[in-house]
Amino acid sequence: MTKILSWNIQSGLGCDRIRDLDRISNYIREHGFPEIICLQEVSRNISDYSAPEQSDQLKYLKKKFPEYSAHWATGASWLNKDGKCEEFGNLTLSRVPVRLSRTHLLPKPPAEGELQIARAAIEVIIPYGDNFLRLINSHLAYHQSSERRSQLEYFCQYQKWEQESCTKGATLKTGAYAHHISTSNTVICGDFNFTPGGDDHAFFTANGWQDAWNFFYTHNPATCGVFDQDLWPEGSHCRDYFWLSKQCVYQPCEASVDQQVKYSDHQPITITFPKV
User: What mean pLDDT, rounded, does the chain reach?
Assistant: First the structure.
């Protein structure tokens, strides 16, 4: 079995307004100890986003999960007044051997007057059966719908390119030009910042992506706003997903959300693929 957890941890900020990565890491260890952990909103040395003793959350989480390899993606790095590097991004931790990892800088078309974050996704490719599985850990734009749509279009184009590489057979080269591994078995997880029934969900579905919640639920379960009614006055709703490419030959045997945890404004979600 291969279990994947995805969680927007809000830089460790719980619904009690306490920042604590220990309880998040302890929860992960105590609930299934997944083969792969995908976290969004991990911060490095951003004072407003971390407890003082946990300021470099990337370093802290790597220490908490020493048996995992760590794969990090940030859209930008900058030096603060103390000379420390500040970053904000996504972290994938894997107990499965990672054959290839890539960082994707997501489109950020200028939007004057709108709040924007330089966003990146982290891709890992792992062996699975007699093939490979690509997992992309992402967090899409919140404030600007056109920015978010451009990011969805990017993933569609990337999957098309990978599918064509598999169909035609990629030319293997060496060094920086090498195309090491091609697979059409793609899973994208994370906080997509759109809800079921909306235009973005319909767009992604129409362009060949399968919402994994639909394999197991008649309605998408709530993954956000379950407890934090101040931040999410609309109440509980779904904005966290596992999306499978239509070419993916592997089907999950389970997908779930823990709606009892209050350690973030989002809930941890998991998907499990059977042993092959």
Answer: 91
**Each residue's pLDDT tens digit, 113-140:** 778 888 999 999 999 988 999 999 999 9
pLDDT surpassing 60 at residue 170:
no
**Residue ranges of the alpha helices (H) in 39-116?**
57-64
Residue with tokens 């967090």: 139
Q: Determine the angle formed by the axes of helices 21-30 and 57-64, rounding to 10 degrees.
A: 30
Checking if the pLDDT of 159 tops 90, the result is yes
3-state secondary structure of 158: helix
Q: In what order do the strands lie in the sheet with 240-245?
A: 100-105, 120-128, 131-139, 186-191, 240-245, 209-211
User: How many residues appear in the chain?
Assistant: 276
CA-based end-to-end distance of the chain? 8
Is the pLDDT at 60 greater than 70? The verdict is yes
Instruction: Report the distance separating Cα 151 and Cα 194, nearest Å.
Output: 12
Give 55's pLDDT tier (boundaries 50, 70, 90).
confident
| Angle of CA points 9, 13, 16, to nearest 5° | 130
Please check whether residue 95 is in contact with residue 81, taking contact to mean a CB–CB distance below 8 angstroms.
no
Q: What is residue 113's three-state secondary structure? A: coil
- Note the Cα 198 to chain centre separation in Å: 20
Crossing angle between the packed helical segments 199-206 and 145-168, to the nearest 10 degrees: 10
